Amino acid sequence: MQALLVIDVQNAIVEAGEFSSELARIEKVIQDFKASGQPVIFIRHLDQVEESPLYKDSEGSHLHPSLKDYAEHVVEKTTQSSFFKTNLPQLLEELGVDHVFIVGFNTEFCCMFTAISAFDRGYKVTFIEDATGTTNNEDTYEMKGLDIRDFVGTVLHWSEVIEVLDFEEYVEEYHSLQKTLN
Q: PANTHER family of this UniProt entry (predicted)?
């Protein structure tokens, strides 16, 4: 069975940038999984430091209102990997999942770490590159011209163990969604 992991779509992250196209793609994938009766699991990052925008009790740590109503399962984590010291492995086992799809935020941290961790645990992994986003940019890494999503997608693709698709390829490969996004 397939499951969708929706990573860190939380107020503090979504409000830190312009992510309307990413959110629209994420929502389409969620709707697709729900329509086919496949599980959708939201991952919520919680920091222990009160000053953090993702502090466990802060408004910034809550799931973003645009997608929170889709959350049938919510797994809380404190590191970049959605698997490290969480109940995600048990939940996936209970649901009979052997293939995870990854969308959400931040591409180069939580999405990538979760993809690698899923592969390490024996899951087939599909990373939908343009249904991820990041609050960082080329200036953050002092690398002019850096497209973080494309870079991470290329590295994961080159691994030859993680399937990397853009949204349109996902639609063609896995489902027959109406192509409403550009």
A: ISOCHORISMATASE-LIKE DOMAIN-CONTAINING PROTEIN (PTHR43540:SF6), PEROXYUREIDOACRYLATE/UREIDOACRYLATE AMIDOHYDROLASE-RELATED (PTHR43540)
Domains of the chain, start order: 4-174 (3.40.50.850)
Separation of alpha carbons 29 and 166, rounded Å: 12
Please give the order of strands across the beta sheet that includes 40-45: 73-77, 40-45, 2-7, 99-105, 124-133, 163-165
Q: What are phi and psi of 45, to 5 degrees?
A: -85, 130
Range of weakest confidence among 33-42, 91-100, 135-144, 162-171: 135-144
Residue 25 and residue 175: Cα distance in Å, rounded?
14
Q: Which residues contact 73 (CB under 8 A, 6 or more apart)?
A: 39, 40, 41, 42, 91
